[in-house]
Amino acid sequence: xxxxxxxxxxxxxxxxxxxxxxxxxxxxxxxxxxxxxxxxxxxxxxxxxxxxxxxxxxxxxxxxxxxxxxxxxxxxxxxxxxxxxxxxxxxxxxxxxxxxxxxxxxxxxxxxxxxxxxxxxxxxxxxxxxxxxxxxxx
Length: 138
Description:
About 20% of the residues lie in helices and about 35% in strands.
């Protein structure tokens, strides 16, 4: 069994997922467009090019799936945050720096009592993240 997050975007799914692949590594391992679905009548060109289903596989094998909501009604807030655990403070800071442009910062990058590096924010694609570095010894 595996839990696979499924993210929804308002027309910028491909941009968001390729950004995540660039920041975290891994690769886009599958993409289907809205226009790939049999439709009668055919979808308008702008909708046809949107992502119906996209699969991003992280270096450790974790999969994240995503789609554009062609009606443009995806939620802008959520009670779920994706957490990425890094092996070093430097890796954590690099990912943070790559994702904070246009982000809503809830907790700026820095040490916490449980970890050497932590940050919490909602990125410009409206996805909530928690980035954490090595945990401190208890």
